[in-house]
Design a protein that fits this description.
Largest sheet: 6 strands, mixed
Strand order of the largest sheet: 2-3-1-4-11-5
Helix content: 25-40%
Number of helices: 8
Radius of gyration: 20 Å
Order of helices and strands: EHEEHEHEEEHEHEHEEHH
CATH class of the largest domain: Alpha Beta
Structural class: alpha/beta
Strand content: 25-35%
Bound molecules: 1-O-pyrophosphono-5-O-phosphono-alpha-D-ribofuranose
Length: 232
């Protein structure tokens, strides 16, 4: 599709930086579990990076399609890149979308990968006594909404990792965190309490690009959707 690339730069109506509307499409991924589980789906959709992303320190990768490149970002940055149009398509965990919002994004596909649960958890035997509850989490917006809906007063403590340590060290009573196997909770004397949301990776698309590059993006979404269906 090299012939589709235009040399005419256009200013987007949203006043974003100058963009070439027919430029190469960009797909934003995240290293780790999402990358590992997305690559086989992309392969079945006929999209193959030209080098081994996991073993490279590079952040931009050409693919076998001359109209598509891959960039590798932190998960929490994927919605920002896609919302602002620096990437057209992204793969991101539902937890990130719930926490940081999905404004400006279409979410056309649940990829059914990187599945886990977002849960409240506490020390084994913990019971709510009615007092204010201290909750440690990196998902402060999700936690705030969850406890507000239950009418439970909480003091939220923002952490960036190792949430399971917070009750042990009496920093918090409960945590809100991702639970997959439950091994991390068990290893730290904790038990899962309530499920807040089932999590999996989602394909997200920039809303403006969905209009301006509709055919190219719809083709990619359809191919990846078919690959998801084949695996199911
Ligand atoms: C996540 C999560 C838990 C753990 C749960 O951490 O925060 O700590 O995985 O998995 P499990 O139920 O299988 O034990 P991760 O290793 O992704 O690192 P993070 O703290 O940077 O999120």
């Amino acid at each position: 599709m090299a012939g589709e690339i235009s040399s005419v730069p256009l200013l987007s109506s949203a006043g974003q930086p100058q963009r070439i509307m027919n430029r190469i499409l960009t797909l934003a991924l995240t290293k780790g579990r999402i990358l590992k589980e997305t690559l086989p789906l992309l392969d079945r959709a006929g999209i193959r990076p030209c080098e081994n992303i996991s073993e490279s320190r590079k952040l931009v990768f050409p693919t076998n399609r001359d109209d598509l490149q891959i960039v590798v970002l932190r998960g929490t940055d994927v919605p920002t890149y896609v919302r602002l149009g620096a990437a057209d398509i992204g793969v991101v965990g539902k937890d990130v979308l719930l926490e940081h919002g999905a404004e400006g994004l279409y979410e056309p596909l649940d990829l059914g990968i990187a599945r886990c649960r977002l849960m409240t958890a506490g020390p084994s035997g913990w019971q709510h006594t009615g007092a204010r509850v201290r909750v440690a989490t990196k998902f402060v917006n999700i936690a705030r909404r969850h406890f507000a809906a239950q009418g439970v007063n909480v003091d939220l403590i923002k952490l960036y990792g190792a949430m399971e340590l917070a009750p042990t060290m009496q920093l918090a009573d409960l945590i809100v965190d991702i639970v997959d196997t439950g091994n991390t909770l068990r290893a730290n004397g904790m038990q899962p309490l309530e499920e807040i949301a089932a999590i999996s990776s989602r394909l997200v698309v920039n809303k403006a690009a969905m209009r301006s590059r509709h055919n190219a993006i719809a083709d990619i979404v359809e191919r990846i959707g078919a690959a998801v269906g084949e695996r199911a």
